[in-house]
């Protein structure tokens, strides 16, 4: 029996080709991908293509588009064995993180990929990323999907989606998962590290939770920053502070007073690290104790992309029991190291 993979094309560099008269990149009709890549017809699975009506640059992808993708996967979940989302690289980690929280009880692969060069370029990385992603999306053993989570495949590596970040705009090896090991790596064989794979509760039925709030602000702390600017911004439900190292900030009575006023105004404060690797550890240094005093929430070793989308998903979400702080601190789908 041939496995069926649904390819959802949203846009991005992977779907571009060069207009040799003007030298500019333009989107091609992704419905003709089998003509562009005839080798896809030789694969051991069936690939069905669903392109967005209007391809989007990844900078235009956001909550509205995340819901469209999640809905489309939900509507077609029983028809296909795996799902592949072609996406621009700049915000792919945001989309992968958001989908990981929105797709509940997932027991089939949802893989995102893209490319640094257009599919029509002679030196492109698009073809390998696309073909290998299809293999991973159709990988089954004993009639069970090997991958049962949202992941990103890029330049020979399969990574957990909500653990990734884009760290290079230049190299083919553009994605990193600094705080979680790879799920698999392709070479002569498609390797999977099974002990690193996520599994939801086997009793959970697949469903979607499309709740997303945009009442989140992300702010990077820097030396010499004037915190009184915080008082001039409108009230938001969640403020995510990206601070130094393992959770430090300049220590002064003014800092404590300003952050406490924000908390007293009903805003939750989440703390994540500016370091790519490692995480937040309140109390490790004296200058992190301020966050314990004001009741801030540790983002632990989450990426900024994952912390932002998780906060957006949890704010005033009626499908969760308990407080925002309790739910944010909980490992929902492998986004935090236990």
What does this structure look like?
The protein has 338 residues and is of the alpha/beta class. The chain has 2 domains: 206 residues, 3-Layer(aba) Sandwich (Rossmann fold); 114 residues, Rossmann fold (3-Layer(aba) Sandwich). It contains 8 helices and 20 strands. The strands form 6 sheets. It has an 8-stranded mixed β-sheet, sandwiched between helices. A 4-stranded parallel β-sheet has the order 17-18-19-20. A two-stranded antiparallel ribbon has the order 2-3. Strand 12 and strand 13 form a beta hairpin. The longest helix is centred in the first third of the chain and has 13 residues. The model has no long low-confidence stretch (mean pLDDT 94). Belongs to the asparaginase 1 family. GO terms for molecular function: asparaginase activity. Its EC number is 3.5.1.1. It comes from Chryseobacterium aquaeductus. Pfam families: Asparaginase, Asparaginase_C.
Shape: globular
Kindly provide the name of the CATH class of the largest domain: Alpha Beta
- Unreliable spans are none
The Cα radius of gyration reads 21 Å
Second-tier CATH architecture of the largest domain = 3-Layer(aba) Sandwich
Overall average pLDDT: 94
How much of the polypeptide forms β-strand, as a percent range? 15-25%
Describe the main β-sheet briefly.
Answer: 8 strands, mixed
């Amino acid at each position: 029996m041939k496995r069926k993979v649904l390819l959802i094309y949203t846009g991005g560099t992977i779907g571009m080709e060069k207009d040799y008269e003007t030298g500019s990149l333009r989107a091609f009709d992704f419905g003709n991908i089998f003509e562009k890549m005839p080798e896809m017809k030789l694969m051991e699975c069936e690939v069905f293509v669903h392109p967005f009506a209007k391809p989007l640059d990844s900078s235009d992808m956001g909550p509205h588009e995340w819901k469209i993708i999640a809905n489309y996967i939900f509507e077609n979940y029983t028809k296909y064995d795996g799902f592949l989302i072609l996406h621009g690289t700049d915000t792919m980690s945001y989309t992968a993180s958001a989908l990981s929280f929105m797709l509940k009880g997932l027991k089939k692969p949802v893989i995102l990929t893209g490319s640094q060069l257009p599919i029509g370029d002679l030196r492109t990385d698009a073809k390998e990323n696309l073909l290998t992603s299809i293999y991973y999306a159709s990988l089954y053993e004993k009639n069970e999907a090997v991958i049962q989570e949202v992941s990103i495949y890029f330049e020979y590596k399969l990574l957990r989606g909500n653990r990734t970040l884009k760290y290079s705009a230049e190299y083919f090896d553009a994605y990193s998962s600094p705080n979680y090991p790879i799920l698999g790596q392709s070479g002569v064989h498609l390797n999977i590290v099974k002990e690193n794979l996520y599994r939801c509760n086997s009793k959970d039925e697949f469903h979607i939770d499309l709740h997303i709030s945009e009442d989140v602000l992300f702010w990077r702390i820097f030396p010499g920053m004037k915190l009184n600017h915080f008082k001039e911004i409108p009230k938001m439900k969640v403020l995510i502070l990206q601070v130094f190292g393992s959770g430090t900030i300049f220590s002064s009575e003014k800092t404590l007073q300003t952050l406490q006023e924000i908390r007293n105004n009903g805003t939750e404060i989440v703390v994540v690290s500016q370091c790519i690797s490692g995480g937040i550890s309140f109390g490790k240094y004296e200058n992190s104790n301020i966050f314990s005093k004001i009741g801030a929430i540790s983002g632990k070793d989450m990426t900024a992309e994952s912390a932002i989308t998780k906060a957006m998903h949890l704010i005033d979400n009626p499908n969760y029991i308990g407080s925002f702080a309790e739910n944010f601190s909980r490992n929902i789908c492998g986004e935090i190291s236990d």
